[in-house]
Description:
The protein is α/β, with parallel strands linked by helices and 251 residues long.
Amino acid sequence: MKGEILITGAGGFLGSKFAKFYSENGFRVIGIDKNKKKLALIESEDVITICADITKETEVKKIYNFLKKKYTILGLINNAAIDAVPKKTSLKNLRYPSIDMWNKEINVSILGTFLMTKYFGELMLKNKSGSIINIGSDLSFIVPNQNIYKKAYPNYVKPPTYSVIKHGLLGLTKYYASLYANSHVRVNMISPGPIKNTQNKILIKEIKSVTPMNRLGEYEDLFSLMKLLIEDGSKFITGQNIFVDGGRTII
């Protein structure tokens, strides 16, 4: 066993795939999520699960106090996020999200990432080793192309929250990459383009039309990079926003 990888949002679509990948490649995974049912689906001999709310510092501190006594955390994957799923709804509600919506999404992605970094980044500093990977998006660099939704969802626009938050997450990534660099703790961001899941067929066609490789990403497309950024082969890589998007952000 190589060591422990801590993953937030571990019960979600990508989080569960990350947990399986790392556990199958010699790492023990500690998955955190609020959803007990989803966590139960990924639990195994090499995947330990913790049901907790990472937006609450008291809960993050409890996790930290428990884990620091038993495990050496090699990597932290800040994956927890809330994304807007395309649907039929009021344009006004999407263009101008409620304050509650802003707070909820910021708390999960920005505050949650900050709190996990505060405790486990500090633990890595003490060990003078570790890698933090923040999961971003192509929308950390570009803004949503609203035209791709028109045929599948005529009254839908992608709200501003997700893109603004991913831009902010990049700032957080760079800040801690700089702060931690002298202690051999690396902080990077992986920014996927749209990953194939259960999207509407018309929407898939539209996304492909604005992607040079003419396809959506597969979750497996992220694995080799995620392994590299945890291991010593990336020991001189920090503060980077690495796109895995089939070229979407270059045009």
